[in-house]
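[job 0412] stage=fold_complex status=start
inputs:
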Amino acid sequence: MTTRRTTEGSAEPLVVLSHVDKWFGDLHVLRDIDLTIHRGEVVVVIGPSGSGKSTLCRTINRLETIDKGTISLDGEPLPQEGKALANLRAEVGMVFQSFNLFAHKTILENVTLGPIKVRGQKKDAAEKRALELLDRVGVAHQAAKYPAQLSGGQQQRVAIARALAMEPKVMLFDEPTSALDPEMISEVLEVMVDLAQRGMTMVVVTHEMGFARTAGDRVVFMSDGAIVEEAAPEQFFTNPQSDRAKDFLGKILKH
Ligand SMILES: Nc1ncnc2c1ncn2[C@@H]1O[C@H](COP(=O)(O)OP(=O)(O)OP(=O)(O)O)[C@@H](O)[C@H]1O
Ligand SMILES: [Mg+2]
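[job 0412] stage=fold_complex status=done
writing structure:
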């Protein structure tokens, strides 16, 4: 059980997707998605390959446009372009499977770049904050190194620190541990659990059931572009309702 849990009634909606549809050509990748993510909530998105999980994440920071429906963040519809769009990207932190750090910048520079360029922070202040965040994710002593000198797990923790440096309202994680060697998975998950316990609003695409159970408030199960089932993690994993969820869990539990 998580120590942080808002009571259903008092939680404010932060991200609201309403009747969202998206096509890639003829392929209907998001089908009438209704999803409300409350402030401080951790939503784990799970489902078979190709079910639309990454696309869903990418629509929330507008890396992908939608064809129908609406998405709002903190009561405002997502901006279409320009400076407002750059600000949105700063408010929605994203951590991908591949770490996407700038190879020719140091760890410290990777974390301070956004705050200085987008948020207009002074270099000193940005560096102070970056070192705090790097310390929080356990890599402060690597600040002067370059990404290639770090392990995959360390690079992913830097990627999390870099996203946090922008003071995002919500953090999206798209299979953040699936490219990592097994021994590095837990160190990244620990950072994510800590973040959840500090009250960060998070959308996490992952098949790590330990994480879902420890830190997740809700599991959203997607199949063929639609949300098929939503439940508390324990309920979802022990007693899935739909045949598609049962089938999917049967497959991943065998591994
Ligand atoms: N840019 C694109 N152009 C065309 N089709 C796309 C594009 N991106 C994704 N798709 C297709 O949309 C569907 C949903 O893809 P998406 O990446 O969202 O699935 P996913 O659930 O994240 O899968 P995985 O578990 O493999 O990461 C898939 O059929 C995919 O092939
Ligand atoms: Mg994906």
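[job 0412] summary: The longest strand covers residues 13-24.
[job 0412] exit 0
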